[in-house]
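Supplementary Methods S3. Input chains for the assembly prediction are listed below.
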Amino acid sequence: MDTLRPQDLKLAVLGGGQLGKMLLEAASDWNIECHVLDPDPECSCAHLAHHFVCGSFSDFDTVYAFGKNADRITIEIEHVNTDALRQLKKEGKRIFPDPDILDIIKDKGKQKLFYEDNEIPTASFMLLDNADELRELISEQKLNFPFVQKSCTAGYDGKGVKIVRGPQDAKDLLEGEHLVEDLVDVEKELAVIVARNADGDTMSYPPVEMEFHPEANLVEFLLAPAHVSDTVAAEATRIAIKTIEAFQMEGILAVEMFLTKKGEILVNEVAPRPHNSGHHTIEANYTSQYQQLLRCIFGIPLGSTATRTVAVMVNILGAEGYTGDAQYAGLQACLQQEGVYVHLYGKKKTKPFRKMGHATIVHQDAKKARALAAVIKDTIKVIS
Amino acid sequence: MDTLRPQDLKLAVLGGGQLGKMLLEAASDWNIECHVLDPDPECSCAHLAHHFVCGSFSDFDTVYAFGKNADRITIEIEHVNTDALRQLKKEGKRIFPDPDILDIIKDKGKQKLFYEDNEIPTASFMLLDNADELRELISEQKLNFPFVQKSCTAGYDGKGVKIVRGPQDAKDLLEGEHLVEDLVDVEKELAVIVARNADGDTMSYPPVEMEFHPEANLVEFLLAPAHVSDTVAAEATRIAIKTIEAFQMEGILAVEMFLTKKGEILVNEVAPRPHNSGHHTIEANYTSQYQQLLRCIFGIPLGSTATRTVAVMVNILGAEGYTGDAQYAGLQACLQQEGVYVHLYGKKKTKPFRKMGHATIVHQDAKKARALAAVIKDTIKVIS
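Predicted structure tokens for the full assembly:
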């Protein structure tokens, strides 16, 4: 479409959390009419959407009825009813990403098999049907400790993952279908967000580096770009592009990787949507990950992913010891600093480690950005 | 307030046009609950506001009832019912800007007298009650041609302004209360946006330079920062700060100025709200004019106004020859270029020269930004 009519700019989004919120904020620049489906009437997107539908995105009928309203549909969370999306696709709707890709990614076992089939480097693994099978392998001493157990379908934000360090951990395993994989000797955790459009053009953001919160297993600081050699950055980028091409996916894919102490790069997992590791692109890159997804969806050429400024992103998590209606302490002190951008997600309730917002710190100097990020992290507190 | 509670972050906005839209977009980052009043149910803000009220912002009862909903009230257009705002102020509401300041600024005659009283440089002028008085002065040869006639209360976006070049123009004068002022020999038109908070802190953006569309009398290109000497920039900044301090205003003030061929700087007019001459600050400065206003309103320290990158802003106006439902031609071609940010205001109907959106072009090199802006201007067309 060479001339855009307002009626062409209509989008249905499954999920109304913070990723949806930032997608809607980006969509506002082009006045895209957004419809959002979420079970929580107080979700981040409820007031921002042109039309908000309160309902379950895992229910066939709800998703199907909701998807009928727009020609283009996207998601901000993987755990949606893909059967309904497949039906909508049959009826001519365009779905970003394709429901078949979602089904692979929603299941960590299928995801790992996909990497194997497509020669995408990943830690060696084994698929198991239940915890009993694993206990048997352990008792037969067929596994080397330590290893990682990952639930195929129950994992999200570090949940459904267990490190098994020795036979003593065998009593407390994850039940159900799962995979076990080598515990990688990680030098750094990297992520590359890559976009691919209907023409098969790809564009990847510079790799970023993640520092995790030791307890909550959530990203605490994100350094953009990653402090790695050009060779490592190029290899991470090559793997990310190879991955999105293997999926033949249209949209954006966040590829999370381990850089091992030996210098190998292994894909850990992917998310076929805007991702925590790309929040900084709002202020730090020419095109944000949110706008890039909109470009894929609406057939607008992919935008430059070049870095405008070095950035550090820090998640604003619910403080320990506070559960209830959220309040923000120290916000003013943070906003006094040049180059500090605070995004609050508008979640009513806080609880320890809940993602309540993030701050992006942009600076000419990477070290100063990192130092300021540490100050910001210690200054802002989400309490109740 | 050192700890912000969500209920503190509530704002009522009079007017739902593009300035309101961009204010709401900025407010979304901090999850500020925005209520908007506008007579047009299809205005730019209608779907973005938490609560939209369709009604007249010039009607006392409507404004008063609307303003009751929030402790803090702002405007995106001057022509609102200031009596209602004064009543709300008496009842403890905080109004940005103060209704008394609005009353001065809404009336170009009062505005000029204010400059005179406060020794703010402005073109010499004379206040007249009606066109007959002016015709008399002309017939008595008491005025030197050319001069400018400006309606005291009917002017907006270049309307209500008339250049009188000789006695032949005397038949077709603006009626009603007006002022006449010297036609300034303009070298450049500059603007400085300045913010002032409750503590009396001020922060000004680097001066920008405007190129006007020859027919529509609307800004066509805006160059940020202005291509002027450091001395001129410092003097323009000094005058802008002097002006906001003279008003004792809390909020943001756009001060439009003439740089004369003799090198004088004269204040032309001011707008006590976000302004067209500050759209570029979204992408080009550390703090956008919209966020800066929110900082004033919510007692958050003023943000850095430093430039992140040189920028050129181009208004996207309705193309000549098209009136009706808006469509956007050439948008894709524009968005293919690095550093081009398009903002569409979501106005349903286009007409020649109507402000339908704007594009900001950021670039390391000012000349390249200007050249690209010219391409963008010729590429994007709002048709019907």
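Residues 230-247 of chain A form the longest helix (18 residues). The mean pLDDT of chain A is 94.
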